[in-house]
Amino acid sequence: MRYLFALVMMCMIVGGAAAQQTPTPATTPVPNAPIFYFYTYQRIDGNRYVAGTGTFPNVPGYDIKLDSVPVWVVGGNVAGDIPRWQVRDALGYSQLIIRPVDSPVPGIIRSQDPTQKGDPASALPVMAITAGASGNLKSQDNPTSTTHPVPLLDGSVYLQVTYNGDVAIWRNNIELARLPLNALRDARPVVNSKGLVAVYVGATNQRYVHGILGDNYEGSGLAVLQLTANQFGVVKRTDLQGEDVFEGISPFWADVNGDGTEDLVTTVSNSTVGSWIRVYLFDGKDFTAEVNSTPLGQDSRWIHQIAFAPFGPNGENEIVAVRTPDINGAVQFLRYNAETNALDTVGEAEGYTSHMIGSINVDMAVAGDFNGDGQPEIVLPSQDRTRISGVQHTAEGVREMWSLPVNGRIVTNLSAVTLNDNTLALAYGTDDGRLRVWLPNAPAAAPTATP
Q1: Which residues are 15's β-sheet partners?
Q2: What pLDDT was estimated at residue 214?
Q3: What is the DSSP secondary structure assignment for residue 9, as one 8-state letter?
Q4: Which of 120, 154, 207, 413 could form a disulfide bond with 143, CB atoms 3.0-4.6 angstroms apart?
Q5: Measured between alpha carbons, how far is 334 from 160 in angstroms, rounded to an integer?
Q6: Within a 13 Å sphere around the CA of 391, how many CA atoms are in the beta-carbon half?
Q7: CA triplet 55, 60, 61: central angle to 5 degrees?
């Protein structure tokens, strides 16, 4: 999801912005030009479903050799510009990769070490693009945090989880308000189409301790926040009972029951039955019901929520998740059943992954119509992370529709970009220090690497 910002905000909160050689718009910042933001998880509502139509697996691949092993990749594209990706390594060293105007091959055009140049950035990169310039959204309260700011009210203010778990908002580097919610320090706030913010709160290490995301803290509560011109507060909060926790760094917004209002998709876990998907049906002000999938049935078993889209063979809306991604990795499609008020598993297939155990990276999968057949698939690595595949829920079951070699192992999130012609590009980083870019609108005659 893209949000517009005044150019003055770019100067205040984006580090490392620099003019690039691009066609239109101009190569220098333009006053009052809109600013667009792009995320490792594709959309600010947390639903990793991207628009566009791809040509996978018939797409040229390009390898860009990096100076270090990447950890994060975030890509973006705006109308009249060209696609670009920002790559971050474990030390915060960043490189900007684009396809220059006079070359069909992507390449590095700017490298920057924020630890040496006084340009601290959020651990989770958010890329800002405006007319001829791009940069990273900087954290206001805690530059070394494991979260990032998010824009609100069309970019006039932005929100962030602070180092002590408060949720605060700023305008022009001035703090306006904060809520003491004990949010997860690595919580990812997600924003729906009405501007409501959902975030995991009540961080605790005194309940179910699994540690699959790198620490023992999980959220015991889920809060929906609202910022208006006059106030900032909690619209709705729910707290789990017993040893239940929200296992993850964020929910995502999606209209699961089709009533026109976005609901919240979460993962709940405990030591008795493991994990399950829970949807909180929401009417805009209150949670009206809880809808659950069947629990996995065993301690230390996790299910990773990914996206919501018309994945069904006949266009039925479904949630796609990955069951036990760190063990045998089954892609699982779940459909809301209004009669039983439950989430039914309608198909699954093993052999994939969407997460590396102990990592905060929960963005190793993305969904969209990557093969251009009119039906979206989930795109994710094989269990050993040596191949990238598109998996679809068909009338015959869950099938792998296409697969491409990595020639190494994927170690970053997957970053999809919708190009100007509505086709889809995809990028990821590998363990041998490469960025692989699948760029369908680049001429196939001059790739630096081929599938």
Answers
A1: 136
A2: 85
A3: H
A4: 120
A5: 32
A6: 29
A7: 120
